Amino acid sequence: MLKCRMLLVCLLAICAPAAFAGVTVTSPTNGATVSGSVSFVASATTSCSSGVASMGIYTAPGVLAYVANGSSLNTSLSLGAGTYNTTVESWDYCGGASTKNITVTVSSQSGVHVTSPSNNGSVGSPVNFVATATTSCSKGVASMGIYTAPNQLAYVGNGASLNTSLTLSSGTYNTTVTEWDKCGGATTTPVTITVGGGSSGNSFSNLQHSGGWAGYAQTGPSYIDCSPSPCEGVSYSMTQNIKSPSMSGEATSFYVGGTTDFGDALFNNHLIGAYSSQGMPDNNHDEVNTYHNFTYDVYFYGTDLSASQALEFDINQFFDSMGFIFGHECRIAAGNEWDVWDNTSSKWVPTGIACYPNENAWNHLTIQVERTTGNELLYQSITLNGVTNTLNWTYNHGSAPSDWWGVTINYQMDGNDKQSPYTVYLDDLTFTYE
User: Fold this and answer.
1) Mean pLDDT of all residues in the chain?
2) pLDDT at 299 over 90
């Protein structure tokens, strides 16, 4: 589906994705600590019409430890204790190559290694927990979990690593990260944190229940905003205070339908800067440009997600004539894959990360991005239902009107080729900025 649009605030264009070359490593995660052999799982794409010829693993510069034919690899390497700056590389039939750098620490001891949050640290909500585990059990680690207090198990995930965010109220928590191995053993690491409250902790909570939302319809080929509903053959709506399905008792339903194929419903909220819904107008233009790290954390529920062409979750920052549009699109009818937005080329880029949200169940999505000190967009990670995929992709920023300073979020629903109507519920929407 070809799309292009021009927006001032919501601004996200959709165009047919061009071919993209790159290496995606799903194991090990960057910065992981493991014991024994290190499992490497990776795949590669290329713009070369002849395809990917082979892939390899360097355990140090110039030290090629493994090579496999084709566009994927799945192997384990036995490495001694220490830290390795590895590189996974692909070579295509046109003479091109792509690389992905992965740092991994090999430990000879069992234990839980927590990299975030730091012990005795002060954090905003939601709190991002990142940890890995090792074990002397020959069968490996079965699962990992987070206790926010004694006997209060707040999260469990399979495998020897976790990367998830928990929404916590203000206060001090004596949390514990635990791993359970397949031999019946367990190890723990305690982490004490203090969580700040409200915007003083650099987060807005329960945003699906907040005021300030605006809705628009968009249709091709221009994808210009239109309202109110219905317009251009697209019907859309949002309804707050939904009790069921709901996690908080204050969910919001979003609907798109109509008669125009591939019609979209776009909803956005101005959080900081002009038209702020959170009481932060930044009239002196001395606040918006100080924020670099953003997290979009939300639960969503759909009863007919197969009717969706795509669901889109975006973070936008504008100041000094620069526009930073962190676009994330879960293509459903269009291929069950995550795309991210390239600001300067105005196109969607496939990530190779699968996106299969659950029907008739709450899906937990956490998106983490950063505006670097060099004013680049850094797509850090996408976590869906406890599975984290780390990108660490950078793009240049786009342009914006010089008088527009603000931070906004978008939620968008794309109609399919039949414009089949469907509804999605959002709940516990938290946005963190720092």
Assistant:
1) 87
2) yes
